[in-house]
């Protein structure tokens, strides 16, 4: 999981690729416990994962409407498609990411209408 700036976060979201954004606070014990679990869960996958410290970038709270930590946001095609905060359901998160990764977005005209 890469640490990035707030500006880089917005640029990554705009690319439209499937990505996971992990928001945390420095003195949050739950944040420190959950982050390695998320990293392990998606190790070896193509999922882009980024970490943003909400303490360093206070604008995170208003931009993403975040009131607690940790928060996991999943983005696809530039839009937030999933959010979990504080109590993370790892099975649900894993299944959601697998579903998005398995989507075939390159559908031909013939496949649609024949």
From TrEMBL:
SUPFAM superfamilies: Thioredoxin-like. It comes from the Bacteria. InterPro entries: Thioredoxin-like_sf, Thioredoxin_domain. Residues 9-97 form the Thioredoxin domain. This is Thioredoxin domain-containing protein. It comes from Enterococcus saccharolyticus subsp. saccharolyticus ATCC 43076.
């Amino acid at each position: 999981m890469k640490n990035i700036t707030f500006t880089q976060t917005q640029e990554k979201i705009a690319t439209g690729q499937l990505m996971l954004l992990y928001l945390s606070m420095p003195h949050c014990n739950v944040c420190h416990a959950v982050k390695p679990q998320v990293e392990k869960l998606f190790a070896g996958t193509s999922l882009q994962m980024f970490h943003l410290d909400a303490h360093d970038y206070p604008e995170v709270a208003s931009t993403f409407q975040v009131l607690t930590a940790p928060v996991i946001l999943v983005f696809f095609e530039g839009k937030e498609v999933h959010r979990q905060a504080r109590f993370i359901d790892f099975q649900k998160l894993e299944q959601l990411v697998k579903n998005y990764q398995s989507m075939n977005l390159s559908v031909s005209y013939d496949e649609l209408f024949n």
